[in-house]
Amino acid sequence: MKSRLLPLLLSLLLAACAAPAPEAPTSTVKLVTTVGGMDDLLAYHQSLRRLSPQELGRELQALNARHGGGAMLAMQKAMVLGLTHDAGDLTKAQAQLGSVVSATDSDAAALKPLAQLLVSNYAEMRRLNDNADKASQQARDNQRRLDQLSEKLEALKNIERTLPGQPK
User: Fold this and answer.
1) What are phi and psi of 57, to 5 degrees?
2) DSSP 30
3) What is the pTM of this model?
4) Which of 115, 40, 39 is nearest to 71 (CA)?
5) Positive or negative CA dihedral for 104, 105, 108, 112?
6) Residue range 126-131: average pLDDT?
7) What is the pLDDT of residues 64-116, one digit of tens each?
8) Rounded to whole angstroms, how far apart are CA atoms 74 and 71?
9) What is the pLDDT of residues 36-59, one digit of tens each?
10) Alpha helices in the chain (DSSP H)
11) Residues 6 or more apart in contact with residue 163 via CB below 8 angstroms
């Protein structure tokens, strides 16, 4: 009797230790929608990133030839200018974005968060470019000083070789 009861008790004990089946996740997916052509601007920026510097120049000329457009056109110009990574163009891009940030129409209001993000991004890019230029200039100066010191050292070695009565 005990031999039949033991497997039954062990199987009940094992069943009690089993974890309950996990429940299906009940999370919901929140759809994010953008207003005011934000999706179009983000897609436009992605297409700009694939362009060569010459193509970016042609795109900027085409945008400059367009009239009107308001905030959307200013954002597009700023995006093109920002991708050239030139310090002067970054300044122009920030000016374009500044006009969007300070505008009061409804089209500009929808684009202000993106414009503010790009302004801060371009300011950081300018700061990093300035720091890289300074570091590059310091490296050139250090290399020039190193070359001068090497020349002086070689001149001193030559003078030392020509001195009479050197101990050996």
Assistant:
1) -65, -40
2) P
3) 0.66
4) 115
5) positive
6) 93
7) 898 877 889 999 999 999 998 788 899 999 999 999 999 888 888 888 999 99
8) 5
9) 678 889 999 999 999 999 999 999
10) 2-17, 38-49, 53-65, 70-83, 87-102, 106-162
11) none
Token representation of residue 119 = 């302004």
The type of residue at 105 is D
33-42, 120-129, 154-163, range with the lowest pLDDT: 33-42
Question: Residue 118: how many CB atoms within 10 A of its CB?
Answer: 23
Torsion angle (degrees, nearest 10) of CA 31, 34, 37, 39 = -50
The pair of structure tokens assigned to 13 is 């004990």
8 A C-beta contact, residue 41 and residue 111: yes
Note the pLDDT of residue 20: 62
d(CA 119, CA 79) in angstroms, rounded, equals 10
d(CA 82, CA 110): 20
**Length of the chain, in residues:** 168
Amino acid at 153: L
93 by Cβ neighbours in 10 Å (0-12 / 13-18 / 19+) ranks as: buried
Domain ranges of the chain: 36-153
